[in-house]
Structure formats: structure tokens, C-alpha cells
């Protein structure tokens, strides 16, 4: 087989798998769309807490999101992706980076200089491709269903900040990545693995302290019953709680959440203001809108949600995920070290014979060559994540929060217009958490065992 045939076969194999994966996503989405169209009555398990009007709103919201997701998959996952591959988009960006490097005062013969400019241009194009979908998703889809809280000015500033932060992180990492491959010798993948592993841990630690406040306003949780109860819960399970914050997520969206951060030593718990009843404010507060009043969880329900989150820490889920990620990184870098000199990979994406930019080689191998492996691993991680969620729920049950956690899950589902009915195949492939009905059933079973 000639070199030409080899790189063409490589290109068509990549496109074929990309299409196959997208078609699977479309098939699963169509299964869920059928559920939205056919399921029009509240499940009997929820009839005491969800009225027909709320259920219909959730159904229409889910239907709109599914149609939007289907459209985006077809446009981005099939049309744009195939055209970019077939016409050698990455090669064109690399060529343009080489041509422009001198204009920016960089060395066109330095792969590090050209590689950094390549990363910047690729990110700019990525933003331009994504921004129409973000605008529609935020100001049409979310706005239509009452979840968008962003003004146009807030949205623009948010996008600019996100882009700047991304470049501050991406460009130095790209430069170091290329440098390590250039000087690392036969076992450069070990140095890459160590570098990215350490960088990942550093980012996990600095993100909540230095990066997250760039985008959202954090305030300490006010002294009171909830704060005292959270500290009592933390002491009860020996959770090393340091600080308690409330993030004003309501300026961005009406959706709710809670999480904790910190790898070593004391940790901080962050509550979205939308998780708290009336955003944690008195009911007569002048800043509360009518749509905000009555939404959110009572103190005991917030404690139940935190008991679930602490369960992830207590059961070692965070550490296990970090270890799995590190193993995956090692395998990816090992495969990259074995394949990055294979010329047809570069020619398949439009580069001239003999030209092998390190960044493009890495992207092609991770995004395309390893695509079948990535798909299987992603599904395996989804299965494991669902198992972890059940375990964290069981931990909360052991602490006596079975009833309150169930109430919190229902309230969050209702407040967020989450549709409670899913096609089993769609859910198994896409959802990292069990569905509401699955979790309620397990909570009920675990609660009876505890009694």
C-alpha cells in the first residue's frame, strides 16, 4: 500500500468512527425525544410533590434542550467536524501560525513559538464556533424557561474573562509540553506524565481560591443555625472543614448546586445561593423576586445534600477518581510516544510529508486514534460514577438523612425543571448520576434497611 493510500485510509477511518459515534448519539437522543413526546402524566412516585403544570413545564424544557442538543450534534459533531478533517483545518491553522509568527515577533523556525501561536489561533476559532450556540442556549433556551439570569454585558465580560484565563493557562502549558517532547528522549512520556500530573493537582488547589472568584462573587456563609449545623455534621464525620462560602450563582443561572474543594488538609464547602431557601435571604428581602421566593432547600435538606457530598470524600471517591485520571494520562502519553512519529497521521489531517508538529500529533492521537478507547473509558467512568452516587446516598442515609435527601432531590428536580422520566438506554450512556426515580427507590430501600 502506498503512502498516499495509507494516509487516506487513516483519514477515512477517523471520519467513519466520528460519524458512527455521532449517529449513536443521535439515535439515543431520538429515543429520549420519544419519551418527551409520549410521557405526559406525572409518575405515581411524584404525584404528591409535582403537579401536572410543573411536569408539563419540565417536559417542554427537556424537549427544547433535546432538540437543541440534536441540532448541535448534527452541525458540530458531523458537518463541521467532517469538513475540518477532510479539508485539513488543523494543517491550515498551523500554516497560518507559521506565516504570522514573524509578524508577532516570534521565530518561525521555533516549534515552541509556532505551537503557542497555533494554540491561540485554534482557541480563537473554537470560541467563534461555540459562541452562537452559547448565545442561543443562554438567551433563547434558558431565557424561555426562566433560568437565565445573565445580562448581555455580564455574558460578554464572562466570555472575555474565560478566554483570557484559558490562554494564560494554555499557552505556557503548550510551550512546556513541546519542550519536554523535544528534550525528553525515548522516555519523554514519563516526564510529560509527571508534569501534567503535578499541574493538575496544582490547578485543583488554586482554582477555588484564585480562579473561581474571577467569575463569581463568593461570600462567607452567615452565622446562624445552618452554619452551626454544617460544622456539627463535619465534626460528626471528621470532615476537615475550613471555610463555608455561598457563591452568587443566581447572577448566572437559576440552577442549584453545592460542592467542596481542597485536596489536602482543610477543605472549603461552597453552596450556591440558589440551593438555599429564598437564596438564604429573609422572605421579605427586597432583592427577592417572586420567582425566587419559596425556591431552594430547607436547612435539613441542605445538610442532607452536604452529607451526600461529604460521603464522596469519606468513601474515597475523589482520591479514586484522581488515581484513575493519572492512570489514563499515563496510558495516553505512552501511546502518544509510540505513535507520534507515524507520518500518515499528520498527512491524514493535511500536513505535507515530513512535517510532524508535536501538538498536532498529540491532538490527532488523543481525539481520533484513541477515540474508540476514549468512548469505552467514558462509558466505564459513567457506570462507576453512578455507583459512587448510590454509595454517597447510602452514606447520607446512614447519617439519618434518608427522608431529607429524598426531599432535597425532589425539590432540586422541581426547581430546576428536571424531567424525571428517561429512556433507559439514553440515561445509561449519558448520565453520570442515576435518575431521580432510581435514587428515590434506592433511598427508600436503604432507609427501610436502616430502620
TrEMBL record:
Boundaries of every Peptidase M48 domain copy: 220-444
The record's free-text note on cofactor binding: Binds 1 zinc ion per subunit.
Principal cellular location given in the protein's record: endoplasmic reticulum
Transmembrane segments: 12-30, 69-92, 112-128, 162-182, 188-210, 322-340, 360-381
Intracellular or extracellular location(s): Endoplasmic reticulum membrane
Enzyme class: hydrolase
Residues annotated as binding Zn(2+): 308, 312, 389
Keyword set, alphabetical order: Endoplasmic reticulum, Hydrolase, Membrane, Metal-binding, Metalloprotease, Protease, Transmembrane, Transmembrane helix, Zinc
Molecular function terms from GO: metal ion binding; metalloendopeptidase activity
Catalysed transformations (reactions): Hydrolyzes the peptide bond -P2-(S-farnesyl or geranylgeranyl)C-P1'-P2'-P3'-COOH where P1' and P2' are amino acids with aliphatic side chains and P3' is any C-terminal residue
Enzyme Commission designation: 3.4.24.84
Bilayer topology annotation: Multi-pass membrane protein
Domain CAAX prenyl protease 1 N-terminal: 32-217
Domain of life: Eukaryota
Keyword presence, Transferase: no
Keyword Membrane found: yes
Role this protein plays: Proteolytically removes the C-terminal three residues of farnesylated proteins.
Protein name: CAAX prenyl protease
Organism: Anopheles atroparvus (European mosquito)
